[in-house]
Specification:
The chain has about 375 residues and is α+β, with helices and mostly antiparallel strands. Helix content is about 40%, strand content about 25%. It has eleven helices and 16 strands. The longest helix has about 35 residues, at about 165-200. It is globular.
Length: about 375
Amino acid sequence: MFTEQDLNELVEFRSDQSPVLSLYLNADPRQHPTEQNKLMLRSLLKEVAGEADAADIEAIERYFDFEYDWQGRGVAVFSCQAAGFWRSYSLAVPVLNHAYASRRPYIKPLTDVLDAYGRYGVILVGSEGARMFVFNLGELVETAGLLGEEVRRTKHGGASGVAGMRGGMTARTARHGEAVVQRNLKEVVEATDAFCAEHGCTRLVLGGTEANLSQVKELLPKPLQEKVTGEFAIDFAAPATEVQARSQELIEEVAAQREMERVEEMIAGWQRGSGATAGLSDTLVALQEHRPWVLLIDAGYEVPGYRCQNCRYLMVTEHKECPLCGGPVVRVDDLVETMTRRALESGVEVEVVRDNDKLQEVGSIGALLRY
């Protein structure tokens, strides 16, 4: 199970002994048979044979031959045998095929996956309680349930021993039922708050009937309201697989809408000359001045660049020496990957944008700025 803690560990790791071999494989059996995925694995390892350490290639081959069960949809492996470093993650979501050898783990594909399929909570709301789920990268990781007082449903004209009292009894019963529902929903809200705090849910999806969802939303405190990304109609007793599929579809739709809105906001700010940058050079300058709060990157964007070995200053074009400290300058194969890592180290949100022509037209990268 891949977590934010795992990502932080990968961000911090560096090997000065030999390169880290990072491999991503789309192993989804619904897209390709296992034998075809194995052929792709061999092709990826062959591509980096001249850059990666032979011991790391052998370790990855051994892992897929004897340990990996070929049940997940994606897999990410990081190996640096010289430094005693090995991490492997079987994922319930697909990844793009990629192999990369460098001094640090190649993390950009994982930030893409976390952005699209990251940790979120789903609350199914019923009149008598709630079912609560946490999904991480498409996989169910936590569940909980809450049942309140039973809501008795009495039909109008139901059994009553006194003639003429049926309507009155029904009205009182209805009022009592409504009060019970309100108490149950308040308990659902309290339990939801505790559940999200315990499991670190940054996004929240609500499911249930229109009536129950309308009532519970009115009771949510503002911090929880801000986490709600959407809602959908679903039977309270639906299986977890249906809950995951329906909620993930909604999460992806909302994420796509958010990406589009942020790109439009970035372009508008860039055009008026305040609040945003667009293009590699200006965005890199802003990042090194610690100005962005969101870094926007096209999912397929890669470009080489340069880095000072002394002060870590990043450059788009080659210099004989660092313009800041005069230190030696080395080439980095993917400057965008390095920028992604710098952003994460600085607490900047990284938004990986998919299939957005507008972002590609302005250079495939940009930022929303704090100042």
